[in-house]
Design goal:
By secondary structure, this protein is an alpha/beta fold. The protein has helices at 10-19, 53-62, 77-82, 84-104, 138-156, 188-196, 224-239, 258-269, 293-299, 307-322, 325-329, and strands spanning 2-5, 25-29, 44-47, 67-70, 109-115, 160-166, 168-170, 203-206, 218-219, 221-223, 245-250, 256-257, 275-278, 287-288. Bound molecules: uridine-5'-diphosphate-4-deoxy-4-fluoro-alpha-D-galactose.
């Protein structure tokens, strides 16, 4: 059985759906930001906290867990700058509790959700796993700390792991059952689409004086189902023993500026956006774009969704939520 911590959240809930094709799945989530409705009903659901040893012990004693996937984290760059303690408690301290309890129960396979934010302001145009890490915000710092802890553990004790550094996850499940539902929403694509649906008055572009072609930040947007598929390959590599430790970047290899994303949303929806330019947001690097050659070459991962398709699935999802206010508010 595979334990998915944070399986009620945006990325975790999509991974659960892919995992269920071949595995039994148990989800642990405290529903602080995740949603009970997002958890596929074929998975076992436990409402609990990964920072609570008793919750973990109860779970590890009751179920035979082969591997743990860990998605439960605070993940907002801007928030981490103003509230770093929340990030070190939720992302580092709780993860240590989890890893320590896993060792007590001889659970030795771990997939860790890390982030492009570990690179800080990258020294190259196209980031690879060899690009030096140098986070410029507490969120990236907190994830890198756990990566370093995992590296030390794996040398000393029985702990095999894959670190997956996500670039900008976006889009929704093809079936329209689940998608991005943060409260409050801070991410670019849902904010643009909610504006185009009439739920927000305007879109504010956070900074137009970056050293990029059009002055706005460039990011590498990756469909959440493409991300989910990478987790399955990583898990298989740990289970079949072809990898004991590995770190992979997950992106499309293509950078789009904030302005280009807005234009693509206008194209997908056929609607015109009202855009204003605001100040830079704290902790934002100008450009984050990755090569995903390493995971392609080693595990055979390919991406299927273009930016157009990412936005198209997100648009279908946002439109469906208009008809279901419960999903918007819970
Ligand atoms: N942006 C705007 N206006 C908005 C919202 C966002 O201009 O209303 C800009 C941001 O400043 C940034 C870009 O759009 O330049 C993307 O912002 P998001 O908030 O959608 O995503 P981030 O790049 O800040 O962060 C996301 C995840 C992080 C992860 C990072 C990796 O939230 O967890 O991608 O690149 F680390």
């Amino acid at each position: 059985m595979i334990l998915v911590i944070g399986g009620a959240g945006y990325i975790g809930s999509h991974v659960v759906k892919v995992l269920l094709k071949t595995k039994e799945v148990i989800v642990l989530d405290n529903l602080s930001t995740g949603h009970r409705w997002a958890v596929d009903e074929r998975a076992v659901f436990v409402n609990g906290d990964l920072g609570n040893v008793e919750d973990l012990k109860a779970l590890f004693s009751s179920y035979s867990i082969d591997a743990v996937m860990h998605f439960a984290a605070s993940s907002l760059v801007g928030e981490s700058v103003v509230n770093p303690m929340k990030y070190y408690l939720n992302n580092v301290s709780s993860t240590l509790t989890l890893l320590n309890t896993m060792l007590d129960f001889n659970i030795d396979k771990f997939i860790f959700s890390s982030t492009a934010a570990t690179y800080g302001i990258p020294t190259t145009d196209l980031i690879t796993e060899d690009t030096p890490t140098n986070p410029i915000n507490p969120y990236g710092q907190s994830k890198l700390m756990v990566e370093k802890i995992l590296a030390d553990l794996s040398k000393a004790v029985d702990m095999k792991y894959v670190v997956l550094r996500y670039f900008n996850a976006a889009g929704a499940h093809q079936t329209g059952e689940i998608g991005e539902a943060h409260n409050p929403e801070t991410h670019l694509i849902p904010i643009i689409l909610q504006h185009l649906l009439g739920q927000r008055e305007q879109i504010s572009v956070f900074g137009s004086d970056y050293e990029t072609e059009d002055g706005t930040c460039i990011r590498d947007y990756i469909h959440v189902t493409d991300l989910a598929n990478a987790h399955i390959l990583a898990l298989d590599a740990l289970i079949n023993g072809s990898k004991n430790t590995a770190t992979y970047n997950l992106g499309n290899g293509l950078g789009y500026s904030v302005k280009e994303v807005i234009e693509m949303c206008e194209k997908v929806t056929g609607k015109k956006a009202n855009v204003v330019t605001g100040d830079r947001r704290l902790g934002d690097p100008a450009k984050l774009v990755t090569s995903s050659d390493k995971i392609h070459n080693e595990l055979g991962w390919n991406t299927e969704y273009s930016l157009f398709e990412i936005i198209n699935t997100a648009w279908e999802w946002e439109k469906s939520r208009v008809d279901n206010l419960d999903l918007i508010n819970n």
